[in-house]
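Researcher: I'm comparing several assemblies side by side, and this is the next one on my list. It has 292 residues spread over three chains. Same procedure as the others: predict the full complex and return the structure.
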Amino acid sequence: MKIYEEKNRVVVENMKDFEPKHIFECGQCFRWNLEDDNSYTGVVFGKILNIKKEDDIIYFNNTNLNEFHNIWYKYFDLERDYTNIKNKLKKIDNYLEKAVEFGGGIRILNQDEWEILISFIISANNRIPMIKKAIENLSKNYGEYIGEFRDKKYYSFPSPKKMNSLSEDEIRKCGTGFRAKYIKDASFIVYRQNCDIYKYKNLDTDMCRKELLQFCGVGPKVADCVMLFSMQKYDTFPVDVWVKRVMEEFYLEESLSLNKIRNYGISKFGKLSGFAQQYLFYYARELGIGKK
DNA sequence: CGTCAGGTGCGAT
DNA sequence: ATCGCACCTGAC
């Protein structure tokens, strides 16, 4: 892997297991958008980053080598050997082999706990375009102005303090629907009650999950997503409608409860459950597996 | 118009 | 423990 800096960008050559489409469209993030030139622009940690892959070269636009090492290396999980993970998963069976090959460029991002908690509360019984719109509205209306990139203005995700200062109605008007009161509650708990969700990642997976489940609007699926996408808990298996479909298509004879599917996944995939879930989810959703 | 979407809370069993 | 139902909202 060769990394070097050019004018306002970092160029990475020969990086394995990194495909922007797979990373940004496997359901783990909501603030990355496809541009006309087939690049993706996102807001992360109050910064605007643009990613473009051409042949085997990846361009990290609007950043520098310092930020690359201090922020993006961790965010994109670049220290992890995904080839090794993929090889282990591929050996399990032919279904997983297909799914892993289909989404071979997936990386599980290390995202901000607070932003992910609220984002996945919004995701409950919701569609991706609506989730993205609600998060964008919250940021545009109540986040900090960051700057412009290609003639578009960008805003950070509102802090717990800012979110707590809003009324339920102001949150609702951003398009969050019945989840507005959950967001209001979570903001109060995190900001006013000084609950440090940034320490949850230090707990073991079961305790971490137990803590998250105490938030109203956080059920089993949302808790698993928050743990997996922002707290480095990889021995968990979020089961949503797509994972249920693909598991029933590949592994299960009958229709099991979501919790039983989760337990089945964790017992089958162990420490790699979270990675397996991502490959299966992306495969199922892109191909419409099991859709009625 | 009804249905449904990357679930969850709630009350009833 | 497990089950069934309502739920903001907008696209079909």
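Model: For your comparison table: Chain A has a mean pLDDT of 96.
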